[in-house]
C-alpha cells in the first residue's frame, strides 16, 4: 500500500498544511510533522471530507453524522474543517451537533483575533562546521532567488537577504553562522525562526556541527538538517543520519521528527526541497506579526561606512519602520535618514521580517541589540534616561549581590572552579589542551571549559566570559581589536599564546589564584652586627657580616640579643660599600637598614621570607 506525505497531499488538495493537520487531528491520526507519511485509506478519507466540504455537503453530513461513516471519525473531521483556528473558539464549541458547528463558524468571524494579524516571512539562519558549505548554500540561494533590484541599487552585504520562493518570502541571515546567532542571543534577542544545520555528506558531524545544534536547541529554534555536497562521489548521507541519532536527533525516515534534506550547493540539487521545507516549517510555526503594532526590531549588523557614516542592518520584528522615525538602541538614539532593503533599493517603509539598512544612528550599534522606536526626539531622550537609570540600579544591585555571594562562598564551597573559554587554530589543538587541562582537575578544583572553538574569540565569547567570570585563552589565534575593546570594557581577560605549555602555565597561575595560597616561612640566612653607623637620612645602619646563607632586601628580619628576641620587622635596605643591593651572600660585609634603630653590636640579624607552598 503506498503512503503519501502530508504536505504532498495538502498541496494536491490545495489546503494549508495547518488545515490538513487539523483534519488529521480530528481523525485521530498520529503524525510527527507535515512531512510524515499517511496511509492510503486515510488519504481517501481526507479526500472525501475535503470534497464534501467543498461541495457544501460537509454541513449536511455534519448534521447527520451517524448516517455516513462511523461517527467518531466523521464528527471530528467535520469539526476540523471548520475555519476557526483559535483554541479559545475551539474550546467554546462542543462538537457534537451541526448546530454547534455552524455556531462555531459564526463565532469565529467575530472572535478570532489572531487571524487579524498577518503571517510574516520566516527568518532563517544557517549554521554548521567550517567548510561544510554554509556560504556556498547561501550564495546559491541568493543567486537563484534574489531578484535583481532596480537600476542604481548597489547590492551590498548587509547581513541578511530576502529570497523569493514559490511559497513566499524567506529571510536569510547571512552573517557567519553561530557568531551572529550567539551574539544576538547573548543579548536576549532571538531573531531566527528556523536554523538550518549544514552538514557535509563526506564529513558528517564535526565539533562545530554539535555546537550549532546545541545553539539551536538552547534557543528552542526548530532545526532542519541540510546534508550538503551530495554531488561528491564519497557522499554518505546515511552515515550523517546515523550519527545524528547518536545525538538523539532521529531523522523522519528512521521514525523521528527531524527533517533532513540532501542538497548540493554546487549543483543546486535539493535546494528547492530545502526551501519548501522551510516554508512548511514556517507555516506550522504560524509566524505572525502586526505591521500596525508597536515597532520592535533587532540589530543584525552595524558598521561605519567611509562615505555614508554609521550604517546598521535592523530586522523588523513587529510594526513598521518609516523614514523619519526615531529609533532607540540601548542608550543612544537616531533618526532614520534613509533606508535600503537587502537588495540595495531605497525604501520608505519596512514591515515585519524585513531586514533594512538604516542610515541615521549616531553610534554603531552592536548585533543583537534591541531596537525600539519613539514618537519624537523628546520621547527618545526620555526612554534613554529611563534606561540609564534602570541600568544604574541593576549595577548597584549586582555589586551588592556580588559582595554577599563572595562572603558566602568561602565557607560554603570547598570546590573551586576555574572557568575558561578556549579558542585555538585547530580542533587538534583544542583537544590537546583540553586533555592536559583535564589532568589538572582534582577533588577540590574543577576546570570548567565553558566553550571551546576554532578561530579567534568573538564578542559572544566575551559576553559569556563576562557573566561567568571566565578567562579566554587563545592558542595560535588572536582576538580582533573590536573584541579586545569589548573585553577591556567588561573586564574580561583574553590571553593569547603560541606555545601550548605557556598557555598551560597561565592556567596554573589561574589555578593558583583560585586556590587559597598557603605560605610558610623560609629561613634565608643570618648576619652578625659588627658596628652601628648613624645615617642622617636612613637612621641607624647595622654594619654586619653575613655568617650563613644570604640576606635579601625586603626579607623579614628577626634580631636576637643572646637568647632574647629584641625585634621583629623588615629588612628595608641592604648596602654593599655605597651601593644598594638586593642580596648579600655568606662571607660578605654589608650595611643593614631595618625599620628599627635599636640594633647593637653583637646582635644577630636573621632573615627569612614567606614563600607559597606548592599544593598538590
Ligand atoms: N562538491 C561540493 N563542494 C562544495 C559544496 N558546497 C560547498 N562546497 C565547497 O566546500 C568548500 C567550503 O565551502 P564554504 O561555502 O566556504 O563553506 P562554509 O561552511 O561557508 O565555510 P566557512 O565560512 O569557512 O565556515 C568550498 O571549497 C566550496 O566550494 C557542494 O555542495 N559540493
UniProtKB/TrEMBL annotation:
Q: Where is the composition biased (Basic and acidic residues)?
A: 104-116
Highest taxon of source: Bacteria
Query: Which residues lie within the region annotated G-domain?
Result: 122-270
Which positions are annotated as binding GTP?
128-135, 174-178, 228-231
Keyword annotations from UniProtKB, A to Z: Cytoplasm, GTP-binding, Initiation factor, Nucleotide-binding, Protein biosynthesis
Region (Disordered) residue spans: 56-116
Q: Where is the composition biased (Low complexity)?
A: 57-103
Boundaries of every Tr-type G domain copy: 119-292
Q: What molecular functions are annotated in GO for this chain?
A: GTP binding; GTPase activity; translation initiation factor activity
Q: Which Gene3D superfamilies match?
A: 1.10.10.2480, P-loop containing nucleotide triphosphate hydrolases, Translation factors, Translation initiation factor IF- 2, domain 3
Q: Which GO terms describe its cellular component?
A: cytosol
Query: In which compartments does the protein localize?
Result: Cytoplasm
Q: Reply yes or no: does the keyword Manganese apply.
A: no
Task: State what this protein does.
Answer: One of the essential components for the initiation of protein synthesis. Protects formylmethionyl-tRNA from spontaneous hydrolysis and promotes its binding to the 30S ribosomal subunits. Also involved in the hydrolysis of GTP during the formation of the 70S ribosomal complex.
Instruction: Give the protein family.
Output: Belongs to the TRAFAC class translation factor GTPase superfamily. Classic translation factor GTPase family. IF-2 subfamily.
What protein name does the entry list?
Translation initiation factor IF-2
